[in-house]
Request: fold
Amino acid sequence: MPDGSLPVALSEYSDNPFIARLPPLLSQRALLDALVSRPPFDERERGYPAHLRKHCIVRLVRYFEPLPRQVQLADRFAMLLRQGYVGRNPLTHDYLAHLHNGADRVEAGALDAPIGRPVENTAASFALVGCSGIGKTLSMNKVLHLYPQLIHHREPFSLIQIVWH
Reply:
């Protein structure tokens, strides 16, 4: 595909509205391009008076040139997110029964009541560990902003999917 996105061909991702509404998977090159932030630059600004050039220099705060580890983080997050939705397909009977059971428990005020038949847990996690100030939060925020925070589903059900918070 010319834009660097890859078609979803994995059987476990098909027929799942939560996965289908996510942005397409990106190639490594497309991820690199999506993560980069280069502030505008105009050669003519070199001739501006000093009091204006200072304002141009401040733009560099928004500069971000992703390293391979940030591309790897984006790749891992894409896997983590999609794998987590594999067991949460809202079109399956098991998942719908699980949702209804949870709603019934909340309405009855009996959160400690047994959970009927649990859904297959496909959720995973990872830790982002490193020294203070090396860019963990900045990198994760860049990756998160590749995805919408909320997705509104209207068909075949009405639901708000919280992708990240």
